[in-house]
Automatic annotation (TrEMBL):
PANTHER family: IRON ABC TRANSPORTER, ATP-BINDING PROTEIN (PTHR42734:SF21), METAL TRANSPORT SYSTEM ATP-BINDING PROTEIN TM_0124-RELATED (PTHR42734). SMART domains: AAA (SM00382). It comes from the Bacteria. It holds the Pfam family ABC_tran. This is ABC transporter ATP-binding protein. GO terms for molecular function: ATP binding; ATP hydrolysis activity.
Length: 264
């Protein structure tokens, strides 16, 4: 296997993703070749059912590749044990059944699980990382609230703080702006952009907020018709990647404003 550049956080080689049922393979996308580096903010885009969640699940080791490789720290993900993986990738799934009865600080502290001993006792280093994560996301004022008392936007920030406390080189988020209003969508994605630069972590997220992703991300992964395109927003716009992203004639991509418009 070729060794990765020291700035590479995760890469794939001829990766095919999908689901196996008995002897049948349901292929979602194929020949995915991408490389995400430290400090990069990368969005996965595509219409409903294109395969965004499947890609994130495969990159985080939850779903096995159908073919090809996912490589983290020069090692295939299949050969990485779960505790090592938990120190490499933190995963934020908005719909996950997390106890909303925990306080904010307790939920953020769960991010330290990969490092704590079997009774889960937190060391001073753990506490420092928890407080630092809370400070980075600017939620000091709600740290003692119960999670069920929070708005969706506040809860999303708490989940991001938990991922930061886990202190991994890669954070993966599946639709982190679902249920948020336009202001909070922009706020959360701008926060992710700032965190990627301030902490030098790679942050990868799936989203339907294409206009915001075009403005904020370093790179974009587009999944369409089982194929992926990977590049900077400028490269993808230039190659016409957005022109046929959606079916029909309802919306069109406007190159000048780099955004989608309703066809009048
Ligand atoms: N556990 C599963 N088993 C079999 N097929 C699945 C499974 N999960 C998803 N799929 C199928 O894989 C395809 C891609 O689904 P996926 O959830 O990855 O898309 P998505 O781009 O994240 O969609 P959305 O934007 O609606 O969340 C779909 O056809 C879906 O039905």
């Amino acid at each position: 296997m070729n060794s990765t550049n020291s700035h590479t956080v995760i890469k794939t080689k001829d990766l095919s993703i999908g689901y196996r049922k008995k002897n049948l393979v349901d292929l979602v996308a194929l020949e995915i070749n991408l490389e995400i580096k430290k400090g990069e903010l990368v969005a996965v885009l595509g219409i409903n059912g294109a395969g965004k969640s499947t890609l994130l699940k495969t990159l985080s080791g939850i779903t096995k590749p159908i073919k090809g490789e996912v490589v983290i720290k020069d090692k295939k993900i299949q050969n990485t044990d779960p505790s090592e993986l938990a120190r490499s990738i933190s995963l934020v799934l908005t719909e996950q059944a997390l106890s909303r009865n925990l306080s904010v600080i307790e939920l953020v502290a769960l991010g330290r699980q990969p490092y704590t001993n079997w009774i889960g006792r937190l060391t001073n280093t753990d506490l420092k990382k928890i407080m630092y994560a809370i400070q980075l996301v600017n939620i000091e004022d709600i740290r003692d609230k119960k999670c069920h008392e929070l708005s969706d936007g506040q809860f999303q920030k708490v989940l991001i703080a938990r991922a930061l406390a886990q202190d991994t080189p890669l954070i993966i988020l599946d639709e982190p702006t679902t249920h948020l209003d336009l202001f909070h969508k922009a706020y959360v994605l701008k926060l992710l952009q700032k965190l990627s630069k301030d902490t030098n972590k790679a942050i990868l997220f799936a989203t339907h907020e294409i206009n915001l992703a075009l403005q904020l991300c370093d790179k974009l992964i587009i999944i369409k018709d089982k194929k992926t395109l990977y590049g900077t927003p400028a490269e993808l716009i230039k190659s016409g990647a957005f022109n046929n992203l959606f079916p029909g004639n309802l919306i069109r991509f406007d190159n000048d404003s780099a955004s989608f418009k309703i066809k009048q």
